[in-house]
Amino acid sequence: MTSAVPLGAFIAVSALLFFIGLGGVLVRRNAVVILMCVELMLNAANLAFVAFSRRFGLVDERGSVFVVFVFVVAAAEVAVGLAIILAAYRNRPTVDVDEIQRMKG
Amino acid sequence: MFGLLTVSILGAGLAVVLAPRITTSALAMAFAFLNVAGMFVLLGAETVAAFQVLIYVGAITVLILYGVMFTPQQPRAYGLFFQGQTPWGALLAALVALPVVIVAFTFVDAGVALEPGNDLRPLGTSVFRDFAFPFEVASLLLLAAMIGAIALVRREREIEEPPGAPHDPQRRGPRR
Q1: B152, A80: Cβ pair inside 8 Å?
Q2: Where are the domains of chain B?
Q3: Between A18 and A1, whose confidence is greater?
Q4: pLDDT reported for residue B144
Q5: Which of A64, B106, B138, B167 has the greatest CB tally within 10 Å of its CB?
Q6: The model's pTM
Q7: Residue of B nearest to A5 (CA)
C-alpha cells in the first residue's frame, strides 16, 4: 500500500516545503514568522530524512535517528530564538527585523 | 491520501508565509506539522510521527504562540508585512527551487522497503547503542539552550542594588 507512492514524490514535497520556508525567511519582516519558517524548513528536512531512510539504498533506521536529533536541535533553536526575540522586544517594542537591524551600534 | 497530504502541507506552508495575521501563521504551521506527521505514517515511520505530533504540534507550536502573545502586534498595512527586498527574495527562492524539485523526482526506490510499523525497537536500539554519545551531547545542548534562554530573558532586578543606595540610572541595564 505504502509503496504505491514513489520516493521522488516525497522528496519533491519536502523540497517544495523547504523552499516555501526559505522564501518566508527571505520575505517576511516579522521575527516570529521568520522563526516559524525556519521550523518549516527543518521539518521538510525531516521528511526527506525519513523518506530516504525507509526507501532509498541500504534501508535502515539511521535516518529516523537523525530525525530525533533534529527534533532536539529544533526545540533548542526555537527556545533560544524566542528568548532573543523577547530580549530585543524589551529593548524596543518591535519584532520588525528591519527596525531591529536599524538600532545596531 | 498522498495528494491530500501534499495539498495540505503546501497550502499550509504558503499560508504561513502569506497570512496577514501572525496567529493565522502559527495555526497554519501547526496544521503543516500535523500533515507532515501523516506523511511519516504513510512512509511507515509511526514512531517518528508520534514524536512529530508530540514535539512539533504540541510543544513548539505552544512555544511559538507564547512568543506571539508576548509581542503584541499593532495593525498595519498589508504591504508592510514584507521586507524591502521581497521580489528579489521570492525570485531567488523560486529559481533555486525549480532545479531542486526537478532533481527530486529522479530518485527511485530501492528494491526493498522497511515494512511499516515496528520501528520503535530499532530506533531505540540505534539511539542508545550506536548513537549514545551524540545522544548525550544532545542532552547537553538542550541544557545549554535552557540556561541560555533563561539568561537572555531574565530581568535585571532592582534588589541587586544595595539597599538605601541612591538611585543610579547608570547601574541599570539597557532595560527601559
Answers
A1: yes
A2: 1-73, 118-155
A3: A18
A4: 92
A5: A64
A6: 0.81
A7: B2
CATH number belonging to domain B1-73: 1.20.120.1200
Contacts of B51 (CB under 8 A, 6+ apart): A67, A68, A71
- B77 pLDDT tier (thresholds 50, 70, 90): low
Which residue do the cell numbers 548525550 mark?
B136
Residue of B41 and A103 predicted with greater confidence: B41
Q: Among A100, A23, A31, which Cα is nearest to B14's?
A: A23
Residue holding cell 504505491?
Answer: A4
Among B47, B83, B150, beta carbon nearest to A27? B83
Residue closest to B18 by CA, chosen among A67, A88, A36, A60: A36
Q: Is the pLDDT of residue B171 over 70?
A: no
| Interface-testing mutation among B22, B73, B101, with chain A (most A C-beta atoms within 10 A) | B101
C-alpha distances in Å from residue A98, one per residue of A83, A102, B30, B35, B111: 19, 6, 26, 32, 51
Contact A50/B64, CB-based, under 8 Å? no
- What are the extents of the domains in chain A? 2-102
* Interatomic CA distance for residues B95 and A26, integer angstroms: 13
CATH number for the domain running over A2-102:
1.10.287.3510
Q: Select the residue from B46, B66, B114, B133 to test the A interface by mutation, using most A Cβ atoms within 10 A.
A: B114
Which residue in chain A is spatially nearest to B47 when comparing CA positions?
A64
Distance (Å) from the alpha carbon of B126 to chain A's nearest alpha carbon: 7
Q: How many helices (H) and strands (E) does chain B have?
A: 7, 0
Q: Give the closest-approach CA distance of A78 to chain B in angstroms.
A: 7
Count the neighbouring beta carbons within 10 Å of the beta carbon of residue B156. 11
Q: Which residue from A8, A19, A37 is facing B97, i.e. has the nearest CB?
A: A19
